[in-house]
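#struct-queue
[09:14] JT: dropping the first one here, sequence first, then the structure tokens:
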Amino acid sequence: MTSDLTPYAERVLDLVERIPPGRVMSYGDVAEFLGEGGPRQVGRVLSVWGGGVPWWRVIRTDGTPPPGHETECLRRWREEGTPVKGARAQMRTARWDGTPL
């Protein structure tokens, strides 16, 4: 496996960097916004290259954090003021559509 960033990965990471604090996008939202790939491809990019971007702002459609990262994700959401109910982001109010705030 190569560690070279692909053009698709660059686009995913650029978008994730632009998600404002306190807001989230689902993996599918990211793919739909970019008009390419799908949720699994976005997840793969974040798992390989996402350590330097706010990965906790990209979550499952049901508002749950990435598996294995629940504690860190919830901590960061609280710090950023992300609307949360229990262990889930409130997608109705926290979802970002990619437009400037």
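[09:21] JT: and here's the second one, same format:
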Amino acid sequence: MVVKITYFVHGTTIDNEQDLATGWLPGELSKLGIKQAKELGKLVSNRCYDAVFCSDLKRAVDSAKLIFGDKYKIIQDERLREIDYGDFTRKPARDFKDRMIDYVNSPFPNGESYKDVERRIADFLKFLKKNYDGREIAIVAHQAPQLALEVLLNNKTWKQAIDEDWRKKKAWQPGWEYILK
């Protein structure tokens, strides 16, 4: 059996609009982010999930609540957090976003590496396989966990996942589908 995963990214934040890296800080949805989450909720209102998970960071929790309302109990899980940017937190993303590959194996100063995120997401996937096999779940989280899913479930290298990231092409879509075998 498989676990079907639909992955959603949180709405635009005030930090996103100011090109600041939020990392493990809560983050606040901007007016645009609130609008995006509400519109996404309308787009997926006919979908049914057995469970909805989200990162425990405020921007993801708020997005999940706006997307799904009271339709589901939203389960927060810290393993779904964004990468910890360490010293780069609240710094301009342009200072490092074009060098993300540098932080695959080496952590951000006083933060995490993308391999650390991969380990967190691999642990979360083991939990899903054990507890939600044969079911369909939704996740609302961040960039790094989604890239980790690309690596773990779509057999991409970290370089491929980073190079092909939808954010570079501005190719947003209302959810990405993954299969956990």
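[09:30] RK: nice, looked through the second one.
[09:31] RK: The helical segments are 14-17, 31-43, 58-68, 114-132, 143-153, 158-163, 166-169.
[09:31] JT: good to know. Strands lie at 3-9, 51-54, 74-76, 136-141, 176-180.
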